[in-house]
Amino acid sequence: MKIAIFGLGYVGCTAAGCLVSQGHHVVGVDINQAKIDALNDGRSPVHEPGLEALIATGAENGLLSASDDVKVALRNADMAMVCVGTPSNSDGAHDMRHIIDVTRAIASGFPADRCDPLTLVYRSTMRPGSCEKIIAPLLEAELGEQAQDLIELVYNPEFLREACAIADYFNPPRIVTGTRDGQASAAMNTLYEGIDAPRFATQFGEAEMTKFVDNSWHAAKVSFANEIGRICQQLGLSSATVSEIFLSDTTLNISPHYLRPGGAFGGSCLPKDVRALQHLSSDIGTQTHMLDALIRSNEAHKHHQFQLASAGLKPGARVLVVGLAFKPETDDLRESPAVDLVRRMLDAGFDVDVYDPQIRPENLIGQNLGYARAVLPAMDDLLVSKSAAQSNDYDRIIATNRLIDDLTIDPGNFFDLSVMD
């Protein structure tokens, strides 16, 4: 198939690399010229293990290109896939401007002489009702009553975890497709041919709700485990022992994933989607007290970990923070708890160095760059090399994730925030 992908962030670039590896022709579309140039040069605009090789091979074989021209991308396309960001608004709801802009661009760029329907797939996380009440009316405003005949609208949430996104793409926990009538889409069945996973065909709203439920549940598991961990620490109990007993019950306690006390949750998905679901609940008058407490609990955990990590240190103490991204093997700094920790350390008057080999300020783009610069404007001056991290004399070394395993350090000054004992 020929597939146009709108939005060349982590989701869009991963999809592009995986699709060309399957032999599909992909045209990436973005308003960011740096991303376009990178793909056309066979380079990935984002860091994701294994993605650079897929993109390089796809470009070399003539299967992958990028452009800012919507009409060129849609010409002869069998499918258009929308992967643009839906960041948080000030009230917690998703900011739908990028969705609206790209939908209008696709509708206005739709080939006038096209007869076969275009399958238009949205993968961005959106409030239930978005396909029916926002996207479909925008398409109809431009294309008229024939919009439903010209465009097969599909919502297909993605379940990609950064740092293992390629494996997740080819081995998803399930495949969910939302359509107007809730019936399976032949084009989507073709797209996922050969991928073995449970499949669910449903209407738009249920498919749109899926990612909210997933991300809010993941966030709930992290916050729940950390609250138990804090209680155990205050009582002088081993939270590791309590956690081990709790997690041994895989029948009632569902899964051990996200349930080990450690770092706060962060990244590009969990915080913004919890806020959006909180806004949705308030908007429709539903009382969801646990959801309303998740962000507050996570912020409390960040403060708790800052207090633990900085206890006993005097202003001016030299500190090394290992791991700045929200997890290893990614350069995504958006709402990373480690970024917040470094900011708190600097505000407290400590001399802070940061070790994270995936973070190269000159390569950060888009919202990733904006968040990093807003919270840590002096980030460039904080980053140190592996040799410096291992040889400098620090009053305390703080690990935010398992990147610490790459370093040979003195365990006497080591504080691991990724686990709670």
Query: What proportion of the residues is helical, as a percent range?
Result: 40-55%
Question: What is the number of strand segments?
Answer: 12
Task: Return residue spans where pLDDT drops below 50 for at least 5 consecutive residues.
Answer: none
**What is the count of helical runs?**
17
Q: Tell me what portion of residues adopts beta-strand conformation.
A: 5-15%
**Sheet with most strands: strand arrangement:** 3-2-1-4-5-6
Q: How far from one another are the termini? A: 51 Å
SSE layout:
Layout: E1 2-6, H1 10-21, E2 25-29, H2 33-40, H3 51-60, E3 64-67, H4 70-74, E4 79-82, H5 97-108, E5 118-122, H6 130-143, H7 147-150, E6 151-155, H8 165-170, E7 175-179, H9 186-191, E8 199-203, H10 204-235, H11 239-247, H12 270-283, H13 289-310, E9 318-322, H14 337-347, E10 351-355, H15 366-375, H16 379-382, H17 386-391, E11 396-399, E12 414-416
Parallel strand pairs: 1-2, 1-4, 2-3, 4-5, 5-6, 7-8, 9-10, 9-11, 11-12
Helix pairs in contact: 1-3, 5-6, 10-11, 10-12, 10-13, 12-13, 13-14
Overview of this protein structure:
It is globular and about 70 Å long. Strands 3-2-1-4-5-6 form a 6-stranded parallel β-sheet. Helix 5 (97-108) packs parallel to helix 6 (130-143) and helix 13 (289-310) crosses helix 14. It is α/β, with parallel strands linked by helices. It starts with a strand and ends in a 5-residue tail after the last strand. Strand 1, helix 1 (10-21) and strand 2 (25-29) form a beta-alpha-beta unit. The mean pLDDT is 91. It contains 17 helices and 12 strands.
